[in-house]
Amino acid sequence: MEGNEERYQFTWPDKRKAILAANAPINATLRPSPEESVDFDTTQNLYIEGDNLDVLKCLKETYLHKVKMIYIDPPYNTGNDFVYEDDFAESASEYLANSGQFDEQGNRLVTNTESNGRFHTDWLNMIYPRLKVARDLLTEDGVIFISIGDDEGANLQKVGDEIFGEKNFIADICHKHRASVSNDRIISENHNHLLFYAKNINVLFAKQKQIGEDPVLSGFNQRDENGEYRLTPVDGPGGAKKGNPHYEFLGVTGYWRYSKEMMQKKYEQRLIVRTPNGLQQKYYLEQAKNSRRTVTTWWDEDFLTSSATKQLTELMGAKTFDNPKNVNLLLRCLKMITKFDKDALVIDFFSGSCTTAHAVMQLNAEDGGNRKFIMVQLPELTDEKSEAYKAGYKTICEIGKERIRRAGAKIKADSPLTTQHLDTGFRVLKLDSSNMKEVFYSPKDTTQQDLFSLVDNVKNDRTSEDLLFQVMLELGATLDSKIEESEVDGKTIYNVADGYLVACFDQKVTDEVVIAIAKMQPTYAVLRDTSLVDDATATNFEQVFKTYAPNTTTKIL
């Protein structure tokens, strides 16, 4: 040590690569898939397919400081089920030899086996940048829960301490995840860890009374004009050691949890009751309903993987996913953090079978909440020998999306009278390369034919909806924003978030269309670079907005 600062460092080979990966820019976009979505036009939930690091980077600016809770269940690095992106340089022959092991972004997908000499390094390089970017999404009172086993638990906590800050580490929650005994180990590992971090422990601690478990609502067996109540202690059990005040009140001398002035105030409010054994206070049922019980670090209720597997198999009609998380585990996390924040946004960027989405919908059904979820999952292929593949699910994403559909339908069917307005839909978006053509060519590499092809800078296979969602992200409109379509002079106009963004991506846009957009006075107005019908319209464009919408910011793609 030197001075008052500790001098130590957690590092691993290639840590610099992980840091660079977190900060590296991307040239990608999210493309909507309405045909795979449920209630695309009205839902506030999102399901995003693609590598989660790139997806998080796409979301970062728009969702900065908007996420109340993150839950992830990353790969445990057991030596046979960890798939990660490998961006080391390789030759064209290697590329062809590994055909089929690339995602849509060209990243090679490799299984991290125990024979790999970079076993822990690769896992740390995978998790570090994702947590680094994810932290920025959290609200100041936001939290993250990370499920992990013993394989990387110690390393994960060191990474978490570095990214979130050691002071923001709240707890290592240990929960029972299996009931049977594994005889192939010296001690049967029947637990998992749940690392729990705050974005800002001071902000979260100020809301401590809103955090915890549901209260016990039994034993309220007395009543007065203010309602049902039970008696609770007012003595200070810590005595002098805890700094409790010592005085006489109503003939009883002792250590109390309140000052004498506060006790007098409570007495005047008819809250202090003299009993044969001393003094107690009235605690009303309505008070209890708005309180929370302190959570401990040992969770031994039904969070078993076997129960989760059985429930998911019954829901899906086949065993589609190995080792799914238990819905009860996610419900407990959600109730602990979002009980009084019923509009909270929840993200799971290792969403797998979408237990998190299921739990969000279930809790909303129970308490009338409007919590929203964003699920992110790499479209890993299912094993051709698996029950999931035989049941028609070719990727993990197909399992997750169908699980949300079925879970939502079941929740509504189980409680039809109270779930009429429950949002069980989701917009599907897929990570892809940029919608814009690569136009940065040197003169020596450009032919005359290239010049003609570069007149339009948008790729040929991209739709107006693709461009709309790109612009929404760029201009800060959340991806669940309401989108209204109208038509002027045969051209489609998109109105996003009640006039926040108005766009038209059709070709040959006339003055009539430009004027119609300007008269809507949006915050942002967007058109394509090649969309105006002629030079006169292009010349008038700026003047039209000065006349009808001087405060609108215009953008040309």
* Helix percent band: 25-40%
Oligomer: single chain
Q: Quickly count the helices.
A: 17
Q: Report strand order across the widest sheet.
A: 1-18-2-17-16-3-6-8-7-15
Rg, rounded, reads 29 Å
> What is the 3D form?
globular
Terminal CA distance reads 55 Å
Question: What structural class do you assign from the helix and strand content?
Answer: alpha/beta
Q: Quick check: average pLDDT?
A: 89
Largest sheet: 10 strands, mixed
Give the strand content. 15-25%
Number of strands: 23
The low-confidence parts are: 86-102, 448-454
Brief characterization of the structure:
It contains 17 helices and 23 strands.
Notes on the protein architecture:
The protein is an alpha/beta fold. The chain is built from 17 helices and 23 strands. It has helices at residues 15-23, 52-60, 92-97, 119-137, 153-164, 201-205, 260-268, 285-289, 305-316, 327-338, 355-367, 387-390, 396-414, 448-453, 464-474, 511-519, 535-548, and strands at 28-32, 46-49, 67-72, 83-86, 108-111, 138-148, 169-176, 191-198, 222-224, 227-233, 246-249, 252-255, 272-275, 278-284, 298-299, 345-348, 372-377, 427-433, 483-488, 491-496, 501-504, 524-527, 553-556. The chain has a 10-stranded mixed sheet with strand order 1-18-2-17-16-3-6-8-7-15, with helices on both faces. Strands 19-20-21-22-23 form a 5-stranded mixed sheet, sandwiched between helices. It has a 4-stranded antiparallel sheet with strand order 9-10-14-13. Helix 2 packs parallel to helix 4 (119-137) and helix 10 crosses helix 11.
